[in-house]
Amino acid sequence: MIRYSISVVDDEESIRDGLELILSEEYDISCFADAESFLSGLEKNAPDLVLMDIGLPAMNGIDALAIIKKKTLDLPVIMITAFEDINMVILSMKIGAFDFILKPMNPDILELTIKKAISSIALRKEVKILQEKYLKDNHPCFIGESKNIEDVMDFINMVAKSPDTPIMIMGETGTGKELIAKAIHARSPVFQGSFIAVNCSAFPDELIESELFGYEEGAFSGAKKQGKKGFIEEADNGTLFLDEVADLSPAGQAKLLRFLESGEFYKVGSTRKYKVKVRLVSATNKNLEELIDQGRFRRDLFFRLCVVKAKIPSLNERRDDILPLAKHFLYEFNKKFQKNLKNISREAQNLLLSHEFTGNVRELKNIIERASLIAQSDVLTREDLGIYPKSDNMEKPESDGFKDQAFHIPDLGINIGKLLESIEKKYMEHALRLTKGNESKAARLLEMNHHTFRYRWKKLNKNNS
Predict the structure, then answer these.
(1) CATH number of the domain encompassing residue 339
(2) Which of 92, 160, 200, 258 makes the best surface tag, with the fewest CB within 10 Å?
(3) Does the predicted TM-score (pTM) go above 0.70?
(4) Percent of the chain topping pLDDT 70
């Protein structure tokens, strides 16, 4: 269970002792007789919550509150006052106080006010603990609680120490293979060098050589005047991550193998030999042994790349990680969308735990992003998630006319332009329904610019009028 810390700032010793006695069983309490002593250690050891008297000696509580808000905007402060001075209360609330309570303090009101303040920071506290546990020293890593992922990270910590050993990361799409590659880089002796990620499926045969190895001035038509460094040279004294390496063309495989055997290469259009030292990490979601049997991947390259293999479990294989990851993403999208989402409802948590994630961590992240965007309360609900178990009897959203049926083109043909416009309009209508008519949010759901969304919406309605 998470234990929260509270700082009590009051010049009356009896108040400090009384609050410590009442609260210490449930919270970690630290007490200060004046604002100056509390503020002096704030940046190094900030509490989760502050109870502060307004009428302090020297610096009063209002001035101290203003300083706190400048230093730590997310720290909730409950002001204490011995008299009901409405002007002081209003001023403290304007500066950013979470709430206020009057002396003599009613224990029930005190407990309720503290609980409200704690609930406002509970998500941030929980995610902070996860990050401290799994992101030590700012090293990229997986957030999770499962034994499966702990075994993976233990293995990564071990093999990362040898920078000359190529590593192959295998796993389904969306499991976070690039994140593992970054973790290897961060934990290796070459962590101060560059981390260069290359999607091998993104380049056609005629470009892969110049992209990997670079080219000299005038090497081919359209080449940059000053030439260009390739990815391999950019990764010198660092890590080169070859994602989707199974999609590398036969020509690209041959050129990569030649480099791996010697560490040397020629730029396109150059007779000068270059030599670099890179940490090589590859990744694929395909079965390389099957591709070798089919003649689509070189066996000799396979042995060069797969000196060490790391298998990343799917999210369905590490279900203990679903809720920690979901809360981590919720915290991130809270900041991105400037919302105040505090938690995920019990029903929504149960739905996430029962869901089959075909898209792994990436799918979970997308679900939480969408839910965070459209949520109307401070807690994500089952309805916000937009996922429905097969056995669920709850009403599902309208299909908007899209049915699971085979595509059919009539004998007389079809106007594909009008069909695409019809589909686009239906998705835009559905996005507007989900966001209750908010065009800006609807545009984000469809990954569109707000102005583009408005222009297309007007045009589609005009064309269909």
Answers:
(1) 1.10.8.60
(2) 258
(3) no
(4) 89
